[in-house]
Write a structure and sequence with these properties.
By secondary structure, the protein is mainly alpha-helical. Helix content is 56%, strand content 8%. A 3-stranded antiparallel β-sheet has the order 3-5-4. A hairpin with a 3-residue loop joins β4 and β5. It is elongated, with a radius of gyration of 20 Å. The termini are close together.
Length: 260
């Protein structure tokens, strides 16, 4: 549970001789960088990155989307900056089409906005927006978790311990991007016990939005990330004990006390 101008148009290497979308390989596969870490993209800059790996075409858009989401959480995509699809496509080693499609999805989620004839600007968010997201999340999740605390047997909560431990491991490494993924996985697992698919969709969207960085926000300190992760275990303990006041307090403070 964690809580526009383009700033540079130079490139670290000469631009390709062709214009428009990059060509795809003839072997039916497209090469994109490995995604254990956020892509190093900065506006119009291009950088060398981890070695590429081969994936089938149908999965490219989804992988690019997840890589861009990771870049948002990790601060690789900077609020207020404009990023063009062709330049990002060159960085990933794919055609511009899946990058545009992924960016359009991010636009529907509110992470970026379309800048005509230029690309996509990362949305500049404010502390007030974070506070509003925390309030809405609490309104949705607190009643659900209180109901689950009364009805779910202790053995089911025990099954979620590994997910809580995964957040602690990522926090201990100071890996904000992987922490964000583990955090969402933990929340989805808890809320899935309510058996409401619409609840999961809405809660996951709110959760993801709350993870995007603020304008000029300092990186979350290591100690804060570790403390935030520890709250997952504390929440499971309270759910097992059916301690409703503690469950309510933990969830509310968790949303407002950190940038998830």
């Amino acid at each position: 549970m964690e809580h526009g101008d383009t700033r540079g148009r130079t490139t670290d290497r000469p631009a390709p001789a062709t214009h428009g979308d990059a060509a795809t390989p003839d072997d039916g596969a497209t090469r994109v960088p490995g995604q254990t870490r956020a892509p190093h993209v900065r506006g119009e800059h291009t950088h060398d990155g981890p070695g590429p790996r081969t994936v089938r075409r149908h999965s490219v858009r989804g992988q690019i989307l997840e890589a861009l989401r990771t870049a948002l959480v990790g601060g690789e995509l900077v609020p207020g900056e404009v990023y063009s699809a062709p330049v990002l496509a060159e960085r990933f080693g794919v055609s511009a089409t899946p990058v545009r499609e992924a960016m359009q999805q991010l636009a529907t989620e509110g992470a970026v906005e379309v800048v005509l004839n230029r690309g996509f600007r990362v949305t500049e968010r404010t502390p007030r927006e974070l506070a509003e997201l925390a309030e809405v999340r609490a309104l949705i999740e607190v009643p659900v978790m209180l109901r689950l605390a009364r009805t779910v047997p202790a053995a089911r909560w025990a099954e979620l311990r590994p997910l809580a431990e995964a957040t602690a491991t990522a926090a201990a490494r100071g890996d904000r991007a992987h922490y964000a993924e583990a955090d969402r996985a933990f929340h989805r697992a808890v809320l899935s016990l309510a058996g409401n698919e619409q609840l999961l969709l809405i809660a996951d969207d709110l959760h993801r939005r709350s993870q995007w960085p603020l304008v000029s926000a300092p990186a979350t300190r290591h100690g804060e990330l570790v403390a935030d992760a520890a709250e997952h275990t504390a929440l499971l303990d309270a759910l097992v004990a059916q301690d409703l006041p503690v469950v309510s307090s933990l969830v509310r403070e968790h949303f407002t006390g950190a940038q998830d």
